Amino acid sequence: MSHFLKQSKSGWAGLFVGLQLALQSAFAHSAVEPAPRLDKWWQDRHSTFNTNVAALGAKSQVIFIGDSITQGWEGEGKEVWAKYYAARHALNLGIGGDRTQHVLWRLDNGNLTGLSPKAAVVMIGTNNSNGEDNSPEQIVAGVRAIVDTLRAKLPGTKVLLVAIFPRSENFSVQRGKLAQINQALRRTADEQNVFWLDFGHRFLNDDGTMPKELMPDYLHLSKRGYEIWAAAMESKLAAIIGDSPVNAGAASADVTGEWVLTIPGPSNEPVQIPLTLKQTGTTLSGRVVRGAQAGQFLELKDGKIEGDSVSWVIHRDRPAGGTMTYKMSGRIEGGQMAGKTATELDGNATSNEWTAKRK
After folding, report:
1. Is there a catalytic annotation at residue 148?
2. Helix (H, G, I), strand (E, B) or coil at 68
3. CA-CA distances (angstroms) from residue 87 to 82, 94, 347?
4. Is the pLDDT of residue 13 over 60?
């Protein structure tokens, strides 16, 4: 009888464990189940990663893990990459179209072998957010599984988890879904081994629209978009790896084109004025429309652009005599400019704010 009870207990225990595994399998979801992709180009890129990892080994201080937005450091972002990450022997482990499950598979199949970087930059999940493919909860679980894998396989590596960038030109259900995911993902960071960074607002205008010059297809970054990413991340990344922050130097926004300048009028009402800018290196030239009559312009003088800072001077002759001088300075962010104007006339000076948006 005693022997029978022992066998029964053993049988019930095995049945219970089997039931647990079955339930876990039943409730598992694609975002956390490592899976390769069958495309030959994907397999080839994955193999190339493994070759590069083996060649570089412990020299790499930073690795980037993600999808096409990360892969884009090799395209639109290549000049920015060279400035910020080449000297750090950074590795780009981004593949276009990847979801969390594909990254998990890659991390288990050679992408980390032999590496011991000081930091791993992770930005992944936007491809899981399409339609009803995965819920916010599932995407959060998938990203956290990647972080857990990195911590287990590279215990000496700090993870810099970057919030998933906003997407679409205007407010949308998908953009809202990503915002909810980011709110939960933020809780993953302990600011000791896993760090959080969210600068998605820098890719948007004040009204919530996304400027085309930062994300031409409202998903993938332009060169200027990668400049924003690198600059927003640099101080934290440098601190994590114990390096001096890279000076962006002459990395400047491209402001060439047609703008609408808004300044306060005589009664403080907003007045909109067409503005044309041309950038040559760090020099700005251009003109603003003067008055309503066609063909009347005021030329910009001493125009400069350094990083995100712009400045120029406009001189305007007054009918009653004298010259009014407008010294304008401001900053560029999210596809628009804003700043202050110091207006001088007959030794008197006033200050007003101005904004400018692309046409």
Report:
1. no
2. helix
3. 8, 19, 51
4. no
Tens digits of residue pLDDT in 263-306: 988 788 998 989 999 887 678 899 998 765 556 889 999 998 87
Say if residues 220 and 68 touch (Cβ distance below 8 Å): yes
CA 58 to CA 36: how far, in whole Å?
A: 26
**What's the start-to-end Cα distance of the chain, in Å?**
88
Burial of 164 (0-12, 13-18, 19+ CB in 10 A): buried
Q: What are phi and psi of 91, to 5 degrees?
A: -115, 135
- Inter-CA distances, 37 with 23, 46, 106, 295, 312, Å: 26, 10, 10, 59, 52
Active site residue 220: yes
* Residue tagged active-site, from 44, 206, 217, 302: 217
Which of 224, 213, 139 shows the shortest CA–CA distance to 169? 213
Catalytic residue among 30, 68, 285, 309: 68
Read off the pLDDT of residues 229-256 as tens digits, 9 standing for 90 and up.
999 999 999 999 999 998 765 445 678 8
* CA-wise closest residue to 354 among 288, 293, 256, 295: 288
**Rounded CA separation 150/119 (Å):** 10
Which residues are CB-neighbours of 82 under 8 A, at least 6 positions away? none
Catalytic residue from among 67, 98, 220, 222: 220
Q: To which H or E segment does residue 258 belong?
A: strand 257-264
CB-CB contact of 344 with 320 (8 Å):
no
Per residue, what are the HEC states of 94-128?
A: ECCCCCHHHHHHHHHCCCCCCCCCCEEEEECCHHH
Domains of the chain: 10-241 (3.40.50.1110), 257-358 (2.40.128.30)
- 198 carries an active-site annotation: no
